Automatic annotation (TrEMBL):
It comes from Parascaris univalens (Nematode worm). The keyword Membrane applies. The chain crosses the membrane at residues 16-38, 58-77, 98-120, 166-192, 219-239. Its main location: membrane. Belongs to the G-protein coupled receptor 1 family. Pfam families: 7tm_1 (PF00001). This is G-protein coupled receptors family 1 profile domain-containing protein. GO terms for cellular component: plasma membrane. It is found in: Membrane. The lineage of its organism: Eukaryota, Metazoa, Ecdysozoa, Nematoda, Chromadorea. PROSITE patterns: G_PROTEIN_RECEP_F1_1, G_PROTEIN_RECEP_F1_2. Keywords: G-protein coupled receptor, Membrane, Receptor, Transducer, Transmembrane, Transmembrane helix.
Length: 270
């Protein structure tokens, strides 16, 4: 924020999109890392922070991750318009419009993440059905009579598998798969446009065009590296979520290979 504010030359759409992305990613780190470190350094059970913190953290992590992907999608469109339709750039990408796009992206992310606050709760491990009448469990049974004491954990409501599936499929489709297609198509079109423009220019024109394309390509390399890093980091997370649906559908008959894959992806995704 300080660097961009003090340098008027950096007041351009790309830098504002990158600033929005940096803020959302920093918030993910601030919100998620302390709790993850606590789980590593202390026993994961029981969850000690209560229902409000459980719901708030889940919502904020989802909200900021959605804001990141929408920001990446927005500046992909900005680069696409700038390179493929340069005559429309001034009207399409004024700073006022960029601020509005970023604001709308964050508003959409906030709204789309709200269901997470309602489905996430503090759960308890259920008492094994076959052992409900076993007296040895009597001291471990919670007041509800169906769960084990001191096994509290923060996660999606295990009693609502249908809602879990809807939310997971929605997040994967709208905030991962669809943006991935958009970004891939956008950068492919940009690459084709730059290459074809170079082929049809004369030698004298190529000299001037080369200077502009070098600047554009340097920006594209930065943006592509950000995009690739983002998707490489978030792909394991979405795979882990999709695998959790398969584990739910399998009931008690869990394929060992699927369980191993789920565990591996779980640790990779953090």
């Amino acid at each position: 924020c300080t660097v961009i504010a003090r340098n008027s030359s950096m007041h351009n759409p790309t830098n504002y999109y990158l600033l929005s992305l940096a803020i959302s990613d920093l918030l993910i780190l601030i919100i998620g890392l302390p709790m993850e470190l606590y789980d590593v350094l202390h026993s994961a059970y029981p969850y000690r922070f209560g229902s409000f913190v459980c719901k708030l953290r889940a919502f904020l992590v989802e909200f900021t991750s959605y804001a990141s992907i929408l920001t990446i999608s927005a500046f992909t469109v900005e680069r696409w318009v700038a390179i493929c339709f340069p005559l429309k750039l001034r009207a399409f990408l004024s700073l006022d419009r960029v601020f509005k796009v970023i604001g709308i992206a964050w508003a959409i992310a906030f709204t789309a993440a709200l269901p997470m606050a309602f489905i996430v709760k503090v759960n308890r491990v259920a008492l094994p059905i076959e052992d409900n009448d076993d007296q040895s469990w009597s001291r471990l049974v919670s007041n509800d009579g169906v769960t084990i004491m001191n096994t509290d954990f923060c996660a999606m409501d295990i009693a609502r598998p249908g809602a879990q599936k809807i939310l997971i499929y929605f997040a994967f489709s709208v905030f991962f798969l669809l943006p991935a297609v958009l970004i891939t198509v956008g950068y492919c079109h940009i690459a084709i446009q730059l290459r074809s423009a170079d082929e049809y220019l004369s030698r004298s024109e190529r000299s001037n065009f080369a200077k502009m394309t070098r600047a554009k390509k340097s920006v594209i390399r930065i943006l592509v590296s950000v995009v690739v890093s983002f998707f490489l980091c978030w792909l394991p997370f979405h795979i882990q979520r999709l695998l959790s649906i398969s584990l739910m559908d399998s009931g008690g008959d869990i394929n060992p290979a699927l369980q191993t894959l789920f565990t591996s992806v779980f640790y990779i995704s953090g």
